[in-house]
Design goal:
signal; four-stranded antiparallel β-sheet; alpha+beta; about 170 residues
């Protein structure tokens, strides 16, 4: 009878231990069978803004891909560059309905450009793909930027995929 009192707690511990091992096996099996989402996503429409330039006060530490959601934040980085003729006005941006994805490249005298822009929605992410190209040497330096205007209905976490060529 004394041994029965000792065996009962051991039996309970054994049952709990076995159950925990089974749960861990199920979790491991479930984790290992997760299927990755395909790389292809739905295209997100955007308008490329025209007639803006990167402010001279913006340091090179701001280079890269940025998501801008307010007019104030946009004005800290960019200024309008109105030109003569048709299409000379800067593209209008309504931050109540839209946000901006900006790509700012380093200042260079190698005729830099940002091309082949593509925006896709993959799960909760916005994936921006683009190509940065360095061309022929120039007698002056420029700082290229691409400004994409996107409707807020397509909002998501921004990720960039850059392909650079020299």
């Amino acid at each position: 009878m004394k041994y029965l009192y000792l065996l009962f707690p051991l039996a309970i511990v054994s049952l709990i231990s076995c159950n925990q091992t089974q749960n861990n096996k199920e979790a491991t099996t479930a984790d290992s069978t997760i299927v990755e989402q395909p790389e292809a996503g739905a295209d997100v429409p955007f308008t490329e803004a025209r007639n803006y330039f990167v402010n001279n006060t913006v340091g090179e530490d701001k280079n890269g891909t940025l998501k801008i959601e307010t007019q104030e934040a946009f004005n800290e980085l960019f200024s309008p560059a109105t030109t003569m003729g048709e299409g000379g006005m800067p593209t209008e941006i309504d931050f109540k309905k839209q946000f901006v994805i900006a790509v700012i490249s380093p200042t260079s005298d190698l005729n830099p450009s940002i091309d082949s822009l593509s925006l896709k929605k993959i799960n909760s992410d916005l994936v921006l793909e683009f190509k940065e190209t360095m061309g022929d040497k120039q007698s002056f330096s420029t700082r290229p930027a691409a400004i994409l205007i996107v409707d807020k209905q397509f909002d998501g976490n921004l990720k960039a995929d850059v392909k650079s060529t020299l």
